[in-house]
Amino acid sequence: MSVQISVVAATLNEIDNIEQFIDGVEGVLKGMEFEIIVVDDNSSDGTKEYLARRMNEDTHVVVIENPYRFGMLRSLKLGIEKAGGEIVLVMDADMQHPPSAIPKLISRIVDGCDIVVGSRYVDGGSAGDRDAFRAALSRGAEFLAHALVPSSRMTSDPMSGFFAFRRDLRHDFAYRQTFATADYGAKILLIILAENRHAKVCDVGYVFQSRMRGKSKIVSGTSFLKRYLAELFEVMKLERRYRHMQ
Question: CA neighbours within 13 Å on the CB side: how many for 68?
């Protein structure tokens, strides 16, 4: 099967959502050439067993099983490295990123954008009904990114985990030490933006959905701040590394 679109997601204990997620992605991509790469982070609730069965039955599904819990960033790195599509689309599998928005992101890549970010802060976008604390935490993280990392200013939503990019862009995850302290919650979009400072970045509005089933994996409070500041420090170094290489 020739794969033109690779959808990449990482899972950790998403048995309540995983079937709906895969069915939703396959529904909006019907008639296209695509693969769904799911990297499971050693789930203990039946997610990895469901994925194993689904992969045996469904030629579109590719599963990578982590022997230990590597964290979101490293799991997404593995999935992106495995991707064979001309377009790679990264999203969550908990249904907070609606599969119905996928065609909009893909169409903007086809129209000439290099990176398309699903944004909560442009026309057609919304952050949904998150509580005030989470809203303040997210907006504060975005402010810090825009203040400290110039490449993050190419999008209105640098904290987005819902984006697509052309696979021939730079996405060199071979360096071993980078993000060692932030592998549990880092936003991989920041890395790709830092590595491709002259790319054409486009925002597409989408409505962030409330989690209906399962438990949120979001880290908050001082633990989040510590990891996020470590992440931004590494992104700043990475951006300097690639500044004169493009």
Answer: 2
Residues 6 or more apart whose CB falls under 8 angstroms from that of 135 comprise 127
Q: What is the pLDDT of residues 126-139, one digit of tens each?
A: 987 766 777 777 78
Q: Are 51 and 60 contacting, i.e. CB atoms less than 8 angstroms apart?
A: no
pLDDT in tens, 148-187: 999 999 999 999 999 999 999 987 665 444 544 445 445 7
Q: Contact at 8 Å (CB) between 32 and 2?
A: no
Residue position matching structure tokens 């590719």: 62
Residue 40: C-alpha distances to residues 26, 78, 174 (Å): 19, 10, 20
Domains parsed from the chain with CATH numbers: 5-242 (3.90.550.10)
Angle between the N-to-C axes of helices 18-28 and 102-110, in degrees from 0 to 180, rounded to the nearest 10: 40
**Helix segments in the chain, DSSP class H:** 18-28, 47-57, 72-82, 102-110, 132-148, 188-195, 221-242
55 contacts 61 by C-beta, under 8 angstroms? yes
Token pair belonging to 241 = 């590394």
Residues with Cβ < 8 Å from 70, sequence gap 6 or more?
A: 41, 78, 183
φ and ψ at residue 37, rounded to 5 degrees: -100, 115
